[in-house]
Write a structure and sequence with these properties.
about 90 residues, mainly alpha, Non-ribosomal Peptide Synthetase Peptidyl Carrier Protein, Chain A, about 55% helix, globular
């Protein structure tokens, strides 16, 4: 899973699913919570999208401002959790 692919997918989801295709100049550092682009309901939908799209489950303790500040922090979270999942031993 590449950072650029995760970032593009998240940006596309927010642009289409949350902003209804409006071009607000969304980029990797746009402050999503601060600008009111996402709220608690949108975060729940975004977490569901991440699970469906990337197969990554986000634990409750990671669903905080620190990890959902902007696309860069969300992308880092997805990659971190995906890497941790790969490191887990698999059951036979």
């Amino acid at each position: 899973m590449k950072q650029s692919e995760v970032l593009a997918s998240l940006k596309g989801y927010i642009s289409r699913g949350i902003l209804d295709g409006q071009d607000i100049g969304l980029d990797a550092s746009t402050p999503l919570l601060e600008w009111g682009i996402i709220n608690s309901i949108e975060i729940a939908r975004l977490v569901s999208f991440i699970q469906d799209r990337f197969g990554v489950e986000i634990p409750g303790e990671k669903i905080v401002f620190e990890y959902f500040r902007d696309l860069t922090t969300i992308t880092s979270l997805v990659l971190e959790l995906a890497q941790a999942d790969l490191a887990k031993p698999r059951k036979a």
